[in-house]
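Problem 12. The chain below contains 64 residues. Write out its predicted structure in token notation.
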Amino acid sequence: MRKHIDSIVSILLIFSLVITGGTGYIQSELELRKFVQHKYFAYSTLILAFLHLTFKYKRIVNYQ
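Solution.
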């Protein structure tokens, strides 16, 4: 079960990064100051990155 959740978090993190980058580009090109979608996707990316690192913690610590 943990492996499935880890895979889902990794896939969602990739999608979140792409969407955050895309909305950031749109915000920059259209000079939108209060483009809330970019802000919310950025927060979700941070949360997913934290969860991803939490699942990969043992692998990161044991890496030599």
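Discussion. Residues 26 and 45 are 17 Å apart (CA to CA). Students who got a different answer should revisit the alignment rule from Section 12.3.
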